[in-house]
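pasting for the record
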Amino acid sequence: MSSSVVLETDLAGLTLLRRGKVRDVYDLGDQLLIVATDRISAFDYVLGTGIPDKGKVLTQLSAFWFRQMGDLVPHHLISIDVEDFPARTQPHRDILRGRSMLVRKTTPLPIECVARGYLSGSGWKDYQRTGAVCGVPLPPGLRESDRLPSPIFTPATKAESGHDENITEAQAAEIVGADLVRRLRELTLAIYERGVAYAASKGIIIADTKFEFGLAGGELVLIDEVLTPDSSRFWPADAWEPGRPQPSFDKQFVRDHLEAIGWNKQPPVPSLPDDVVARTREKYIEAYRRLTGAELA
């Protein structure tokens, strides 16, 4: 397994459509090529130091989950095997291998669909302030990291930069329509609950996660990434203890380091020391191995 770092791609002969915090997206006509780099963001900034193999984890874990959810909802994934990619991508096969997805082109919906099964992050802050999360009332007396009585659907707007903004279901309905929001809620909770049950069998709690959907020919399609350490909070089940933040399989080491050095969360963005990079990589790889039972390709 290679541990080289890919921070940015520049694929000659291909049209770069957009560069996100982590992914570089190329336009192939009626298809897209989504390349997951090893960039990592924290506190809304992309850091100058990458995490080796992170993009491979995101790609290969998403592909695993797309296969698991295919009977619940159509998805955009065509293949992650570079041998299946169009001829014009083949000069770049070495950089694309293991970290890129060939997908159907869809029209992405302008909201993100968040499922929460535990009280954490912005949901915990909202609950402390209002007794609810995104307008969904919850019982009094819950602690940080408590399991909710049942999972809830809390949509968010998509931000081009900075934080996504949590909104109520009613606000989401104003954006995409009430019927579509009802369907999105059903699908979001169904996908989440299936993922939760599977992950529990591998000793992982999925505290919350976000999904994105698009439309293709009037059909609702699951897109982007699915149940990865970037889009979800993964907690080791044997260490779960409500009343405090939990250890997790994500960028916890990165956030902890940035807090410890007193970074003011403004440019210039600091670099990460080797030990933080190595420990973060280990957590991503461990999540992948636990969930898939396979080694990263």
